[in-house]
Design brief:
Rossmann fold, elongated, five-stranded parallel β-sheet, alpha/beta
């Protein structure tokens, strides 16, 4: 029998962190939580982690700073950013993360990203395949954004 994937959730919102931990454990994940970046980095240093769910705006140490340290110490560790400020993420954090999910999005978005990064196939995929996936996702989101802009522009012209 294979072991449970181990997830580290780093978020300064203790209520959200508690709910996320309970939900992910219900879905079969082992979960560590940290309410700030330094505590999360300490857990990642001493435990074997399969993926990180990381908030961006936290007091003391922002998510991009945590991600930079994680990347340096654990280059292949998948990082999923879960933030209420996805539109404000620095490009460096976007590049370091496997996915960026807005708090309040359907929970399936987070579960899907976790499944992809913790599955056996995802772990065997070379880093370049992950980068290809990220580029394809950025392209898809950009095309969707441009399509929505075109609809708004057309609706504005008709008004």
């Amino acid at each position: 029998m294979s072991r449970q994937p181990v997830i580290l959730c780093v978020d300064d919102n203790s209520a959200g962190l508690s709910v996320r931990k309970q939900f992910l454990e219900y879905k079969g994940y082992a979960v560590f939580t940290a309410q700030d970046g330094p505590a999360g980095l300490e857990i990642a240093r001493r435990e074997t982690i399969d993926a990180v769910i990381l908030d961006y705006k936290m007091p003391g140490m922002r998510g991009d700073e945590v991600a930079e340290r994680l990347r340096r110490d654990h280059p292949e560790l998948p990082i999923i950013v879960l933030s209420g400020f996805v539109g404000e993420l620095p490009s460096s954090l976007v590049r370091m993360s496997y996915a960026q999910i807005t708090k309040g999005d359907p929970i399936e978005a987070l579960l899907d990203a976790l499944e992809r990064v913790t599955s056996t196939n995802a772990k065997r995929r070379p880093r370049s395949a992950n980068l290809t996936h990220i580029c394809e996702e950025v392209l898809r989101q950009s095309e969707q954004f441009l399509e929505n802009c075109g609809r708004r522009r057309a609706a504005h012209r008709r008004a």
